[in-house]
Amino acid sequence: MRIIKEKITWYHLSSATSEELEFIKSELKMPEPVMQELQSPSSRQKMESYPGLLYVIVKFPIYEKKKKTCRAVEIDFIITDSAIATITYEQIQPLEELFTQCEQLEGLRQKTFGNTTAELAEAIFSHVFTYGMRELTHIDKSINEISEQLYQGVEKSMIPLIALVKRDVLDFRRILKPTEGVLHDLHDVSKALYGDEKLFTFNNIIGVYEDIWDVVENQKDTIESLESTNQALLSSKINEVMKILSIIAFLLAPFTIIGSMFQMNLQFTPIAGMPGDWWIVMAIIAACCIGLFIYFKKKKWI
Predict the structure, then answer these.
(1) Residue 150: which residues within 8 A CB-CB, separation 6 or more?
(2) What is the pTM of this model?
(3) What's the total number of domains in the chain?
(4) Which interval of the chain is the signal sequence (predicted)?
(5) How many Å apart are CA 165 and CA 227, to the nearest integer?
(6) How far is residue 153's CA from residue 234's CA, in Å, rounded to a whole number?
(7) How many angstroms separate the Cα of 287 from the Cα of each of 257, 262, 274?
(8) Where among 230, 254, 270 does a domain terminate?
């Protein structure tokens, strides 16, 4: 457990032990239902209000470079008028980063640890969301690469790349979406701790969330447009191949038809047995093929 004490106090617990949770319960006078919730990660995001205390569960998307995918990490907030406790079930880089900066940089500490815990809550949420914005840069980079290669005739190889980026965007969006309702609930019940004077602080938190949400929505629209364009190009290429194969089949039809006619075991077969009969048949077939070719050309089918 790490603690910073100024006008207000920030308790940060990562993979908290039972003794540390008991200490926080005693310090912040946590209700028993909250204590029970902190024993293990929650399955959903939510905000609960108790006398003199707000309990908030939020999940943030973190991109894992090794697995090349996004996953949700949980941060539990215990907010009172004089202290904030953040409880995580693993080390979360942006949170550890902000805590270390507050420990080492007096100017940041003085700014963050204001007269109320509202300023600290804003700093924590803003820093985590800003970190999430940085996480989105890998998706932007991938989208730009796909956009550059889209018209280079490699539509088939683009399909798995587009699918991976689309998965990342949808995972980020799926994790982030429920946070909106929690933040609005937090804004509405913040009056119980701070009155009306700190509503703008929680409006700022919602504003930072909306900024990152707009980026995710823009990426979603962009990758879906690129996917549609790639699919259209691929379909066009397939249609062109099918068109060529169909034309070839039609042009070869005279070979099949005329050849089958001369294979019929009849008493009288025209041309058969005449001098140069093979060349005569070939000439008839060539004339039919040329005729079909001219017809297709006039119809602008080729």
Answers:
(1) 158, 226, 229, 230, 233
(2) 0.77
(3) 2
(4) none
(5) 10
(6) 9
(7) 14, 17, 19
(8) 230
> Does residue 192 sit in the same domain as residue 288?
no
Do both 202 and 241 map to the same domain?
A: no
- Strands of the sheet with 2-5, listed across from one edge: 2-5, 9-14, 83-88, 69-79, 53-64, 46-50
Question: How far are the Cα atoms of 152, 154, 221, 225, 241 from residue 230, in angstroms, in the given order?
Answer: 11, 9, 14, 9, 17
Judge if 41 and 79 occupy the same domain.
yes
| Dist CA 218 CA 234 (whole Å) | 24
Residue spans of beta strands (DSSP E) within the chain: 2-5, 9-14, 46-50, 53-64, 69-79, 83-88
The list of the chain residues with pLDDT below 50 reads none
- The residue segments making up the domain with residue 246 are 237-298
How much is the pLDDT for 182? 92
Q: In this structure, are 246 and 170 located in the same domain?
A: no
Tens digits of residue pLDDT in 104-128: 888 888 888 877 888 889 999 999 9
Q: Write the CB contacts of 275 (distance below 8 Å, at least 6 apart in sequence).
A: none
Q: Which residues pair with 115 in a beta bridge?
A: none
Same-domain check for residues 101 and 118: yes
Same structural domain, 214 and 282? no
**Is the domain of 203 the same as that of 276?**
no
Give the Cα-Cα-Cα angle 122, 124, 126 (nearest 5 degrees): 65
| Dist CA 80 CA 130 (whole Å) | 24
| 3-state DSSP percent of the chain in helix, strand and coil, to 5 | 65, 15, 20
